[in-house]
Amino acid sequence: MSVTAGLAELSLQALTPDLFRPFGHVVATGAGAPVAANAGTAWRHDVAAFAGDVRPGSRLVVSLFETAPQALPAAVTLLERHPHSLQMIVALEVSHALLAVCGSGADGAPDLSTLRAFHCRPGEGVIYAPGVWHAPLIGIGGPGRFLVQSWQDGTAADCEEIAIPPWAVRAPAGEAAR
pTM higher than 0.70 for the full model? Predict the structure, then answer.
């Protein structure tokens, strides 16, 4: 049975700074002027400022995530948000990644009318603004590794999760599933 049978559908969009702006910032090399580093043997690409969390006991946590391979069309059934912190996610080793994201309604719940799906390539990533709802990491076409950075204080307020009715995410019309 197809994952899309009877489900609301989204088509993957290119991950561009303009399209992603309502949800945060895109992180990618080539987005700004690099700075020579390491005696000229490397280029440093600075990302957007990663503001701190002002909650007492909050600390910057840097993690590596590994994902099991999934294929398109893929189902999005869970969203999460980090109400007090930015969260940076960068695809390190992955064929492709799917980033599903939406804003909040007046009640703070996910506003599914704003749900979008972005195609993320290796070396690209995003910084989610605080409180932005997003799907957990989804690696497409093979196992994936991601660098994830957020501020945490170790309480349930670090990450909120909510189940949503399933949405099917597919490759854009005319493109093969990755």
Answer: yes
Which segments within the chain are labelled E, that is strand? 8-14, 24-27, 35-37, 42-44, 59-67, 69-70, 74-81, 87-93, 96-102, 116-120, 125-128, 133-134, 138-140, 144-152, 160-170
Amino acid letter, residue 85: S
pLDDT at site 38: 92
Domain annotation for the chain: domains and CATH numbers: 8-170 (2.60.120.480)
Cα 178 to Cα 170: distance, rounded to the nearest angstrom:
9
Residue 138 bridge partners (DSSP): 98
The secondary structure element, H or E, covering residue 18 is helix 17-20
Confidence of residue 130 (pLDDT cuts 50, 70, 90): very high
Sign of CA dihedral 55, 28, 133, 158: negative
Do 35 and 44 contact (CB within 8 A), yes or no?
yes
Beta bridge partners of 69: 139
Distance CA 37, CA 19 (A): 31
